[in-house]
Specification:
The complex is a heterodimer. Chain A is mainly β. Chain A has no helices and eleven strands. In chain A, strands 2, 4, 5, 9, 10 and 11 form a six-stranded mixed β-sheet that branches. In chain B, strands 2, 4, 5, 6, 9, 10 and 11 form a seven-stranded mixed β-sheet that branches. Classes of the chains: A mainly beta, B mainly beta.
């Protein structure tokens, strides 16, 4: 079945450094790729998303890139801050039907050291 | 604007007891609705989704069930809870009638369920 692989599972960076999280999807019909941030004990929150007709999208310190040919997409966080510490999930839309289902990656725990 | 409400926030139940978790969405019509479970330190497991009233699809065989009695109401139930049912339960919604065009899902605050 369809799946999304996410790497790394944990990532530790110094404050001010950049962080990159990578995902690979299997469903060639996927056309929507959101990223969620989940702080400890809280709900996942959408932080950025990208559609298949766009190669890159940026919002302040975060950016997402998409390579449809290779079925890869990545989250880039620049100038990391301690408040960026959280679990990050990538996801890809299920290509068929109108269910709105998303396939989630396994998550990356990001730790930003002050 | 759209909002999603989930309750209760925390719940402690004995093994073998029933369960009912409720989720409601405001500010939108005919949303797609989802129930997820998240074990401690783990990812999101889709349990059920619904594209309309009375329409429920199950993703994982288990002793849980879901119902959608009204357009913006989604209920997760169990007749007899197991220890393995412990976890963080999240309800989410997305826009309906989107065809094959992907849409974001928006999550509620979740219910932390502990089974004793």
């Amino acid at each position: 079945g369809e799946n999304v692989e996410q790497h790394p599972s944990t990532l530790s960076v110094q404050e001010g450094d950049s962080a990159v999280i990578k995902c690979t999807y299997s469903d060639s019909a996927s056309n929507y790729f959101p990223w969620y941030k989940q702080e400890l004990g809280k709900r996942p929150q959408l932080i950025i998303d990208i559609r298949s007709n766009v190669g890159e999208k940026k919002d302040q310190r975060i950016a997402v890139t998409l390579n449809k040919t290779a079925k890869h997409f990545s989250l880039h966080i620049t100038e990391t801050q301690p408040e960026d510490s959280a679990v990050y999930f990538c996801a890809a839309s299920m290509g068929s039907g109108n269910t709105g289902k998303l396939i989630f990656g396994q998550g990356t725990t990001l730790q930003v050291k002050p | 604007s759209q909002t999603i409400h989930q309750w209760p926030a925390t719940l402690v139940q004995p093994v073998g007891s029933p369960l009912s978790l409720e989720c409601t969405v405001e500010g939108t019509s005919n949303p797609n609705l989802y129930w997820y479970r998240q074990a401690a330190g783990r990812g999101l497991q889709l349990l059920f989704y619904s594209v309309g009233i009375g329409q429920i699809s199950s993703e994982v065989p288990q002793n849980l069930s879901a119902s959608r009695p009204q357009d913006r109401q989604f209920i997760l139930s169990s007749k007899k809870l197991l220890l393995s049912d412990s976890g963080f339960y999240l309800c989410a919604w997305s826009g309906g009638f989107t065809g094959a065009r992907g849409q974001p899902q928006h999550f509620g605050d979740g219910t932390r369920l502990s089974i004793l």
